[in-house]
DNA sequence: GGCATAAGTTCCTTTTCGGAACCTGTCAAT
DNA sequence: ATTGACAGGTTCCGAAAAGGAACTTATGCC
């Protein structure tokens, strides 16, 4: 199977990764969540080549994760903003942060933590079931594919 | 910047993705969570080339996400199992599933849902703060990098 | 001896990536 | 009027990674 055939799979993991499973994509989206919106800024912060960045932005726009909109005329310049579909990726980003903070040690003591905007106190992200409030782990949950 | 320099970044997103941000890696791990442990089975299910699969399994073992252990002697054969560090990736996988189920429509009506192992009822995964129980969104949380 | 199995490895072609230079509109200064 | 700067790309080329198929190794079974 080729990577591009992935979007036609029944498995939601495969379909999700066909959009965000790419090498640079989630890093681009991280910058978008931080309020970075412009090509030049993203390119410089990430060190990604302009060629690849242009390609990723195109694909993310096509997937409805980002939208491209003008912020000035003469000359017309565009910036990239998260759509609702893009903002819905926040839990994925937070899960990666939480896992990396716990399991991929930083090179120096320089970790980044999540804090509440209101209180400024650290956040401890846990995935729970909205119905019961119980924590979701691989032991409590299973996948079901309707036939 | 090259992809391989990513693991030395201060940002936990970059460090996390240096392990799991690869094209096939999360799909391999999906199979591991489903109990698939052997090279041949993973290769056939994913349609990944043997070459790339061998490489990914090596890297995942080196990262401490999978461990390789013999399940028979003569000839000695190994299988791959999730370590604790690997199992800790379950929230990432679930977040991707949830996002794809909501935002990346399946080609036919063939979605996969998550259900409780105990009760069999559907799960609604939400990322919450273990301290307060409140839902985590990009509006309620911000990243803090200690200087 | 011949075949099957599991887990790779090797070889070769195709695709993607990294790096640098170039292009396009517009304004502002020389 | 020419030159330079800025922003958002595009083009070109060599390098790295992925796709595809065949081959290897160790062992047991017929």
Structure description:
- Two copies of one chain form a homodimer.
- The first copy, chain A, is an alpha+beta fold and 147 residues long.
- Chain A has a domain of 81 residues: Arc Repressor Mutant, subunit A (Orthogonal Bundle).
- Chain A has six helices and five strands.
- The longest helix of chain A has 14 residues.
- Chain A is globular and about 55 Å long.
- Chains A and B meet through helix 1, helix 2, helix 6, strand 3 and strand 4 of A and helix 1, helix 2, helix 6, strand 3 and strand 4 of B.
- Strand 5 of chain A pairs antiparallel with strand 3 of chain B, so a sheet runs across the interface.
- The structure holds a DNA duplex (30 and 30 nucleotides).
Brief summary:
2 copies of one chain form a homodimer. The first copy, chain A, is 39% helix and 18% strand.
Structural features:
6 helices; Arc Repressor Mutant, subunit A; alpha+beta; DNA-binding; 147 residues; two-stranded antiparallel ribbon; 18% strand; homodimer
């Amino acid at each position: 199977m080729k990577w591009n055939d992935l979007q036609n799979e029944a498995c939601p993991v495969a379909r999700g990764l066909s959009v965000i499973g790419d090498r640079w994509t989630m890093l681009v989206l991280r910058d978008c969540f931080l309020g970075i919106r412009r090509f030049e800024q993203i390119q410089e912060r990430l060190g990604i080549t302009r060629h690849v960045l242009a390609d990723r932005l195109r694909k993310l726009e096509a997937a409805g994760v980002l939208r491209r909109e003008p912020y000035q005329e003469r000359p017309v310049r565009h910036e990239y903003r998260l759509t609702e579909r893009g903002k819905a990726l926040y839990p994925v980003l937070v899960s990666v942060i939480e896992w990396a903070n716990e399991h991929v040690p930083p090179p120096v003591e320089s970790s980044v933590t999540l804090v509440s905007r209101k209180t400024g106190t650290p956040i401890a992200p846990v995935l729970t079931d909205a119905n019961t409030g119980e924590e979701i782990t691989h032991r409590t949950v299973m996948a079901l594919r309707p036939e």
